[in-house]
Specification:
There is one protein chain. The protein has 8 helices and 13 strands. With about 290 residues, the protein is an alpha+beta fold. The protein has 2 domains: about 170 residues, PUA domain-like, CATH 2.30.280; about 110 residues, no CATH class. Strands 1, 4, 5, 6, 7, 8 and 9 form a 7-stranded mixed β-sheet that branches. The protein has a two-stranded antiparallel ribbon with strand order 2-3. The longest helix has 30 residues. It is elongated and about 70 Å long. Bound molecules: zinc ion. Zinc ion binds next to strand 11 and helix 5. It comes from Sinomonas cellulolyticus. Keywords: Endonuclease, Hydrolase, Nuclease. GO terms for molecular function: endonuclease activity. InterPro entries: HNH_nuc (IPR003615).
Length: about 290
């Protein structure tokens, strides 16, 4: 996990299957996940080491509708099949009993995974064939009402972080790591902007509610200095167009007015959803 933390900036950046396969510890090969199976227990381990959620190219459906994102504050991970005694299910149950930390790999593209660690298996729902996973070790023990509250809060923030990390990776990849407005292609200067803010009910952490934007254009978009028309043409707030100032205003904002977005996902299903764009466009006009 230390290696993974260094390699992925604490789980902020995704990592490729090749690197996970080729990982070695003390000179010995120790793949960090299986190529196919979701639950991975390396030979000689007493419990599972990692779990993987496979990448699913998304259409307009909300990601994680498969039960991962549920009404309470824990994440769900499905059994392998329906047999509780199946070997990998037993390995994951062992991780719960031994209270050992695991790595959760969430596929964000083919062969590319966003790692979340440590996570803990804190319970099981046998009738639904699934385990309960928490990103917080505190969920393992203690049952006073106070601890219960604390756990809930920790899980909400951990889950929020988790989904925002996945959102960022998916959006930046969909836009080939370029600002939709100006095409800037330097990762440290790029954000995944929400079309509808995530505090709003419609502000889903889905690639169809996102656009990759550089820091300036992201901030301009959020503060309604820059809008994106539903036909994907950039508009700059009228009063800014007549202002005279330095090169950032002139080239960075004024010259973007009336231009189509420079970077748009090739796959139609990854492009901004029209109703979300419409709503953001109304907000811009009102602003
Ligand atoms: Zn930009």
């Amino acid at each position: 996990m230390e290696w993974l933390a260094a390699r992925t900036h604490d789980g902020a950046e995704p990592i490729g299957w090749g690197e996970l396969r080729d990982f070695t510890l003390a000179g010995k090969s120790l793949p960090l996940k299986d190529r196919v199976k979701g639950i991975w227990k390396p030979a000689g381990f007493s419990a599972a080491l990692s779990i993987t959620t496979t990448y699913r190219p998304e259409g307009s459906e909300r990601p994680y509708d498969d039960g991962v994102y549920d009404h309470d504050f824990l994440l769900r991970y499905k059994w392998n099949g329906t047999d509780p005694a199946e070997a990998t299910n037993r390995a994951l149950r062992a991780a719960m009993e031994q209270r050992v930390p695991l790595i959760w790999f969430v596929g964000v593209a083919k062969g590319l995974f966003q790692p979340h660690f440590p996570v803990y298996v804190v319970g099981e729902e046998p009738t639904a064939h699934q385990f309960l996973v928490s990103a917080d070790a505190a969920a393992l023990g203690g049952d006073s009402p106070f601890e219960e509250q604390l756990r809930r809060y920790a899980d909400v923030t951990a889950k929020h972080r988790l989904f925002q990390g996945i959102f960022r990776s998916q959006v930046l990849r969909a836009y080939s790591e370029r600002c939709a407005v100006c095409n800037l292609g330097h990762l440290p200067l790029l954000d995944a902007a929400h079309i509808i803010p995530d505090r709003d009910e419609q502000g889903i952490a889905s690639v169809v509610n996102g656009m990759a934007m550089c820091k300036i254009h992201h901030a301009a978009f959020d503060s309604n200095l820059l809008g994106v028309r539903p036909d994907l043409v950039v508009q700059i707030r009228a009063d800014l167009l007549h202002e005279i100032d330095g090169p950032m205003l002139r080239y960075g904002l004024q010259e973007m007015h009336g231009r189509p977005l420079m970077s748009v996902p090739r796959m139609r299903s990854l492009r901004p959803r029209e109703d979300l764009l419409e709503k953001a466009w109304e907000r811009f006009k009102a602003g």
